[in-house]
Amino acid sequence: MTDSKLPPRKTPLKAIREELGMTQVQFAVALGIDTSTVSRCERGLSEIALTLWQVKCLCMLTGKTLDQLPDHLGREADIEEHRLVTQNQEGQLTPALLRKRANKTQRQIAVELGITESVISKWERGITVPSPSLTDTPKYCQAYDCSLEELIEAFTNLSNN
User: How many CA within 13 A on the CB side of residue 59?
Assistant: First the structure.
């Protein structure tokens, strides 16, 4: 049997929805999202970004606390990659951890910095490293809600891996 014939892995979102006994339509309506978003996430084509209100609804639906919910609901590769870049093996600070700690999405950080989400993603995966000017540094610290020392540490730790 080749890899292409293996059944797709069940995403955490699909497992939650099935555990609740809901259809994609019912689940989407309950969370106030589009059915196509649920479908794409369950097929592993995208990650789902929920608002605080939607996360609260998910907690109420499942009877779980925020800490009991999975960190990611979509793609397995993203889940593992996120584990790798949020905190390195030594438990050091990384850009993704700074962003999560600030309770912001990649999109929110990108908007605040006037750049694209793909740039933020590349930073978090260690593909590229930002090079803000000295005058831009406070804007970066504000976007990540961190000190200059934490910002430098996070990007230095990532570039050293």
Answer: 12
